């Protein structure tokens, strides 16, 4: 068991997957010689060679397209897009080809590929370097979407994503890359891609989040405990397929729900969760569902980024409004 950061956990998972399966290849801009923009692929070139670790041109659409071709021929490509905001160039390939390959060929071909990208703000970067497009990818039938919130979950979920027979978009919270360390046992054990993780039990309120915002959500739960409010904290982790059962069961116990995410509110993934709770647990609700999110603007420049990002104070304010309902 070793204490590692999230980016080190990603690196360990890639090493493990490539060592276990010769079909796994890594490709992207600067993933080889430089080890990736955040060093997530550091050392892979030296270990596995240039046949399996491929530096590509700055052409995101081509990176996705080549990955689909490799997957169709039996490889398991892991493509890195340097920032999630650059993944928009991949949409044509992901929507029209990766997500449809199994259906289009009636199961003759599958597209076992992973599209990795750092996502989210909080690192004082600019717009395309700080975006959270998980809802856009989750809307595409045939794609799975994962966003881990800790080193251990990043390790296990990435292994499962690489082993999955269908395409997975794996968004890594940039500001968590080196924010904390956690014990991770590198023994090749994957985590299920269809399960939420309950990080803290509670009786009064359900807090649901994913990615980097899980950190603030847990901190808010700690504050609420001092006010004698026990908040249950659920890390969605895999947005698609969504483990609705775990969320509905929690809301049935607590009667209250707050959803926290960094992406803009309108059509954000929190709306999907809220809709499912309204459809499956509305008679359990004791108060309106609250969403604490980013605003419907472009991610701002560094001087105003802090005003955009959801924070503990906003989560606490939402919790107090929710608890005010009798």
Write the layout of secondary structure elements.
Blueprint: E1 2-4, H1 6-20, E2 24-28, H2 44-48, E3 53-55, H3 60-72, E4 76-80, H4 91-96, H5 101-104, E5 114-119, H6 134-138, E6 144-146, H7 151-163, E7 168-173, E8 182-184, E9 197-200, E10 205-209, H8 213-225, E11 231-235, E12 238-240, H9 244-254, E13 257-264, H10 269-281, E14 290-294, H11 302-308, H12 312-323
Parallel strand pairs: 2-3, 2-4, 4-5, 5-7, 6-7, 10-11, 10-13, 13-14
Antiparallel strand pairs: 1-8, 6-12, 9-11
Helix pairs in contact: 1-7, 8-12, 9-10
- Low-confidence spans: none
CATH superfamily of the largest domain: Thiamin diphosphate (ThDP)-binding fold, Pyr/PP domains
- Tell me the distance between the termini: 47 Å
**Gyration radius from CA atoms, angstroms:** 19 Å
Named at the architecture level, the CATH assignment of the largest domain is: 3-Layer(aba) Sandwich
- What's the mean pLDDT score? 96
What is the third-level CATH name, the topology of the largest domain? Answer: Rossmann fold
Number of spatially distinct domains: 2
| CATH class type of the largest domain | Alpha Beta
Strand and helix order: EHEHEHEHHEHEHEEEEHEEHEHEHH
Strand order of the largest sheet: 3-2-4-5-7-6-12
The biggest sheet amounts to: 7 strands, mixed
Treating each run of at least 4 consecutive H or I residues as one helix, how many helices?
12
Overall 3D shape: globular
Range of strand content: 15-25%
Number of strands: 14
Could you say which structural class the secondary elements and strand pairing correspond to?
alpha/beta
Helix content estimate: 25-40%
């Amino acid at each position: 068991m070793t204490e590692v950061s999230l980016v080190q956990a990603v690196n360990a998972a890639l090493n493990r997957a490539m060592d276990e399966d010769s079909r796994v290849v890594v490709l992207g801009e600067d993933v080889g010689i430089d080890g990736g923009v955040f060093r997530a692929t550091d050392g892979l070139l030296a270990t596995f060679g240039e046949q399996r670790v491929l530096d590509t041109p700055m052409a995101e659409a081509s990176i996705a397209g080549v990955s689909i071709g490799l997957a169709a021929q039996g490889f398991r490509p892991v493509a890195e897009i340097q920032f999630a905001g650059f993944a928009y160039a991949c949409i044509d390939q992901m929507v029209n080809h990766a997500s449809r390959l199994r259906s289009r060929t009636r199961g003759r071909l599958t597209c076992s590929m992973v599209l990795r990208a750092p996502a989210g703000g909080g690192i004082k970067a600019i717009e395309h370097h700080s975006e959270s497009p998980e809802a856009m990818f989750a809307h595409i039938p045939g794609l799975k979407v994962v966003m881990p919130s800790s080193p251990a979950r990043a390790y296990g979920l990435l292994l499962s994503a690489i082993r999955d027979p269908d395409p997975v978009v794996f968004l890594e919270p940039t500001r968590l890359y080196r924010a904390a360390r956690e014990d991770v046992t590198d023994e090749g054990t994957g985590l299920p891609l269809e399960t939420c993780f309950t990080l803290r039990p509670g009786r009064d309120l359900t807090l649901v989040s994913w990615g980097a915002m899980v950190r603030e959500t847990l901190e808010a739960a700690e504050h609420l405990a001092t006010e004698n409010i026990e908040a249950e904290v659920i890390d969605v982790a895999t947005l698609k397929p969504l483990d609705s059962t775990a969320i509905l069961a929690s809301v049935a116990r607590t009667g209250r729900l707050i959803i926290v995410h960094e992406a803009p509110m309108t059509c954000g993934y929190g709306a999907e969760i809220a809709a499912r709770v309204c459809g499956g647990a509305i008679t359990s609700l004791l108060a309106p569902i609250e969403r604490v999110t980013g605003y419907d603007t472009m991610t701002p420049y560094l001087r105003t980024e802090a005003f955009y990002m959801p924070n503990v104070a906003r989560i606490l304010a939402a919790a107090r409004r929710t608890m005010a309902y009798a």
